[in-house]
Design brief:
By secondary structure, the protein is of the alpha/beta class. It has ten helices and nine strands. The strands form two sheets. Strands 5-4-3-6-7-8-9 form a seven-stranded parallel beta sheet, with helices on both faces. The chain has a two-stranded antiparallel sheet with strand order 1-2.
């Protein structure tokens, strides 16, 4: 990203906004679930910018959807803060290998598990193998998600509805169930929600509903596990530039993605990851059941 000065402030200018001003990125589309190597312009996950401060030293984390997008940025940040990091991903092996490379470059242990989190037994296996390899599990980040733009509710098929909720809700609950078997006092669960779960979205009715469910799940689980000294919070981002966008939205939507924020651009994953670091660390020890909304604009709730 480049820097320019506006109204006396240094602000980051996203290459996507620059490209949009020149008439692009136009018809960029990918096959779901999308891949980082084909994303134009490339996303920033903090590879060159994030500096750790030992906030997660000695901790072990598991991040679903950790191969790309927000998940990769969080994995890099956690590793540079001192955590060993496991990622769960679906199909995109090159992206997963790249995330693992960055974790190991930070001097931390890395694990990667491919598979479909809509399968409850796969969720159990990922958690059990992570805890066994690392000898502990302190942090779970439920981040994997599925969306598909559907403008007319009449076109929302039973198959899409089931895929959305099994990926975005069922898997979050299953991962939390199994992770809690290994967590003691100080354990942390962070769920990825969405601004759509706060405000709704006409073209993502099922997705927005699933994200609203995640928000309430967060608040409910926080109450249920507080007596164990375990905290549960949620990050509900606005538009973020990830492979999910060109692989699930129309070319027209991609071309205008993020233009409705105060910065007239989507966030980079690197700009969202520090929120997860805060919630995973002792800095947020009084926070639980909260929904943090880095949306780039005023958010109604």
């Amino acid at each position: 990203m480049t820097q320019e000065r506006r109204h006396g402030l240094d602000v980051s200018v996203n290459p996507l906004a620059e490209e949009r001003a020149r008439g692009g990125p136009g018809g960029q589309q990918q096959q779901w679930p999308g891949t980082e190597s084909e994303l134009r312009p490339p996303a920033d996950h903090g590879e060159e910018s994030y500096r750790g401060a030992g906030k997660l030293e000695g901790r072990a984390a598991l991040i679903t959807g950790g191969d790309s997008g927000i998940g990769r940025a969080v994995a890099i940040a956690f590793a540079r803060e001192g955590a060993d990091v496991a990622i769960a991903y679906y199909n995109e092996h090159d992206d997963a290998r790249e995330t693992v490379r960055w974790i190991r470059e930070a001097g931390r242990r890395a694990l990667a598990f491919d598979g479909d989190l809509r399968d409850r037994e796969h969720c159990r296996d990922v958690v059990e193998r992570t805890a066994a390899e690392f000898g502990r599990l302190d942090i779970l980040v439920n981040n994997a998600a599925f969306q598909w733009e559907t403008r007319d509710i009449a076109d929302l098929t039973p198959e899409q509805l089931e895929q959305t909720f099994r990926t975005n809700v069922f898997a979050y609950i299953w991962m939390a169930q199994f992770a809690l078997e290994h967590m003691g006092e100080g354990g942390v669960i962070i769920n990825t929600g969405s601004v759509t779960g706060l405000e709704g979205h006409a073209g993502l009715i099922d997705y927005a509903a699933s994200k609203g469910a995640i928000h309430v799940f967060t608040k409910s689980l926080a109450q249920a596990v507080a007596h164990r000294g375990i905290r549960v919070n949620c990050v509900a981002p606005g538009p973020v530039w990830t492979p999910l966008i060109p692989s699930t939205f129309s070319a027209e939507h991609v071309a205008e993605f993020g233009a409705d924020t105060l910065w007239q651009r989507p966030a980079q994953p690197a700009e969202i990851a520090p929120t997860y670091v805060f919630l995973a660390s002792a800095d947020s020890r009084f926070y639980s059941g909260e929904i943090f909304a880095p949306t780039g604009r005023t958010t109604t709730r």
